[in-house]
TrEMBL record:
Residues 125-146 are annotated as: Disordered. Belongs to the AHA1 family. InterPro entries: ASHA1/2-like_C, START-like_dom_sf. It comes from Arthrobacter gandavensis. Residues 25-158 form the Activator of Hsp90 ATPase homologue 1/2-like C-terminal domain. It holds the Pfam family AHSA1. SUPFAM superfamilies: Bet v1-like. CDD domains: SRPBCC_CalC_Aha1-like. This is Activator of Hsp90 ATPase homologue 1/2-like C-terminal domain-containing protein.
Length: 162
């Protein structure tokens, strides 16, 4: 989907992924699941992947860098990614860059921007997620599949903690 123009904001061109998910948890809990290393290893990555605690690092402040590695539980293949925490406005908003990387942090793909907006709704939280721009729809669709699975894992994680 091409990103629509927002009044008062510069036009963004390109291919973007936009998703909305509802969680039965307060915005603070969802926000913390995104930004606390003690939680991200429980849900980052789609089904069939794990993020080992020793393969993730995060400097949880604006401008801080993060890096993580998803490990395929069947093949052992590793997929590294990382970026910078751009804006942290707890518990309503966070944004970060993301790109695939080599284990040493060398870029292996284009950089995208992830934005997460959290709104309290009916005793839970509505999360609006956007990522892009992607170089093509195949890349966007691949990320959508992965994020859908990750967000299902996030819902399960939040349910276990309530």
């Amino acid at each position: 989907m091409t990103q629509p123009e927002q009044p008062g904001q510069p036009a963004r061109r390109g291919i973007y992924l936009q998703m909305v998910r509802d969680f039965r948890a307060q915005p603070e809990a969802v926000y913390n699941a995104w930004t606390d290393l003690a939680h991200v290893t429980d849900w980052w990555g789609p089904e069939g992947f794990i993020v080992p605690e020793d393969r993730v690092s995060m400097d949880s402040r604006e401008g801080g860098r993060y890096q993580a590695c998803m490990v395929n539980t069947i093949t052992g293949d590793e997929l590294w990614w990382g970026g910078t925490l751009e804006r942290l406005d707890p518990p309503e908003h966070l944004s970060m860059t993301q790109q695939w990387e080599q284990p040493d942090g060398t870029a292996a793909s284009n950089t995208t921007l992830i934005t997460v907006d959290l709104e309290a709704r009916d005793g839970g939280t509505q999360m609006s997620f956007a990522q892009g721009p992607f170089p093509n729809t195949k890349e966007r669709d691949s990320h959508e599949t992965g994020w859908n699975s990750s967000f299902s894992r996030l819902a399960e994680f939040l349910a276990r903690r309530s």
